[in-house]
Design a protein that fits this description.
Blueprint (H helix, E strand, L loop, with lengths): L1 E7 L6 H6 L7 H9 L4 E8 L4 E7 L2 H16 L3 H6 L2 E4 L1 H11 L11 H15 L5 H20 L9 H13 L6 E5 L3 H12 L4 E6 L2 H11 L2 E4 L3 H5 L4 E4 L10 H8 L7 E5 L16 E4 L1 H67 L5 H29 L5 H12 L14 E3 L5 E4 L1
Parallel strand pairs: 5-6, 5-8, 6-7, 8-9, 9-10
Antiparallel strand pairs: 1-3, 1-4, 2-3, 11-12
């Protein structure tokens, strides 16, 4: 069996291509089943997000497994196999495990260290489990990857520092106020950056948000989408008298918030702190406003400095997490190797305990007058003899798991002790294919 990871991501395909190779939510389940029914595939999990579509599979052969996965993707999205090959990264064995660990921990994301991917991996794994397309290998490996990512996020600062401008804007507000859930915010503009700012404010618990825009209809539409308030640009001066946070991102050529307007507003404020964050280029907020007391005015360069510093912090944390990955790969390999040993050890124990039980039955026949206490003592000592005799053979069997010729040596081990172990990894059986009426059509 071989692990294969095939990935279409932000490095291999632009956004226009990635949009064309994303499984819709309602198609993931059937896609998992379709892939599982494919030749050479023993287990599979499909991950599909806005930035990546990936197939993780256990296959009986590397080359055929890779081909049939790429053919499956081509058929699913209307591409030629050669086109799919050009936009995919293929990882096999340890590199496939490494890739899964990197992705789950957020080390392979567009935004380094983002945590959303962990939930998406978990959900993809659960869906595959529900559809019974996972088995012994993936039930263990994906749980290991999810546990690893959780621990990495808890023990490092990789997700604690803002690395997007809109998120950094909200984080700057927190540096001034501490908690901002009870603050009043104004978002000037109704474009993409403004919407991201709204989402980050909502994510930080802010409920009092007003969108201000020159075109009120756009403000109304965005406000309705996120269930916040809207107002025309002409109301900005009045709103500033009670606001705590202002994030501005418009395409205006002149200042939206001038020094004169802010001086007028200051007459009605009670020296409360006001955070102004200008993420527009050219700037929306007059830089002279820096001179006013209790006003904290930040522009995009200030935010960039914070983002760059935070990105360095995230990279340091990412390097720390990356150093832990080889140990995780080794642990996975040890677990896989032990799969072949465990049934052998179990068979050896079962045979030995069977001999002990037969011996006790013989003793019962030959010494029928034994008391219950005497019988328990004899049973305990015979089991102790068995366990001591098995100690070294079991140790030797475990050491065979890491031997390059482990299969041959385990077979010899079974012959020596005259035991027959169950197959460590049972490939899926041939599955009957049925038509829509349920009639059996044949076997694969």
């Amino acid at each position: 069996m071989h692990l294969i990871a095939i990935s279409i991501n932000h490095r291999t395909a632009d956004v226009a291509l990635r949009e064309r190779v994303a499984f819709k939510d309602d198609a993931i389940r059937s896609a998992n089943v379709d892939l599982y029914e494919t030749k050479s595939i023993l287990e599979n999990v499909i991950l599909s997000t806005c930035n990546r579509t990936e197939v993780y599979a256990v296959a009986d052969q590397i080359h055929t497994g890779r081909y049939y996965i790429q053919r499956f993707l081509a058929r699913s999205f209307g591409f030629d196999v050669e086109e799919i090959k050009e936009m995919t990264e293929v990882k096999v064995g340890d590199e496939a495990v490494r890739h899964l660990l990197n992705v789950t921990a957020g080390l392979d994301s567009v935004v380094l260290g983002e945590t959303q991917i962990l939930g998406q991996i978990r959900e993809s794994f659960f869906i595959a489990q529900d559809e019974e397309t996972t088995g012994t290998i993936f039930n263990h490996l994906f749980k290991q990857a999810i546990t690893f990512a959780k621990k990495a996020h808890n023990e490092t600062d990789i997700a604690d520092n803002a690395v997007s401008v809109s998120y950094a804007a909200v984080e700057l507000s927190k540096k001034v106020f501490g908690k901002i859930n009870n603050k009043q915010a104004i978002v000037v503009g109704a474009g993409d950056m403004s919407e991201l700012s709204i989402l980050n404010l909502i994510g930080s618990g802010v409920t009092d948000i007003t969108i201000v825009n020159r075109t009120l209809a756009k403000a109304d539409q965005l406000a309705s989408k996120h269930q916040v308030k809207s107002a025309p640009l002409s109301d900005l001066s009045n709103l500033l008298s009670s606001a705590d946070i202002v994030i501005s991102s418009t395409s205006a050529e002149d200042y939206i918030l001038s020094m004169d307007m802010m001086q007028h507003v200051q007459q009605y404020r009670k020296n409360d702190s006001l955070v102004l964050i200008d993420i527009a280029v050219p700037r929306d907020i007059d830089p002279q406003i820096d001179e006013l007391e209790s006003v904290f005015n930040y522009d995009v360069d200030d935010l960039k400095g914070l983002v760059d510093a935070n990105l360095r912090e995230r990279q340091n944390a990412a390097n720390e997490i990356a150093q832990r990955i080889p140990a995780e790969i080794e642990a996975h390999n040890e677990w896989v190797n032990m799969l072949g040993v465990v049934p052998v050890i179990r068979a050896l124990r079962e045979k030995a305990m069977g001999i002990q039980e037969e011996t006790m039955e013989s003793i019962d026949r030959k010494l029928p007058g034994l008391s219950e206490r005497e019988r328990k003592v004899i049973s305990k000592h015979t089991k102790s003899i068995i366990n001591q005799m098995l100690k070294d053979p079991i140790k030797q069997a475990k050491e065979l798991s890491s031997d390059k010729n482990s299969n041959e040596k385990l077979e010899l081990f079974q012959n020596i002790f005259d035991i027959e172990a169950e197959q460590a990894y049972e490939p899926k059986k041939s599955k009957r294919r049925v038509n829509s009426t349920g009639r059996i059509l044949g076997f694969e």
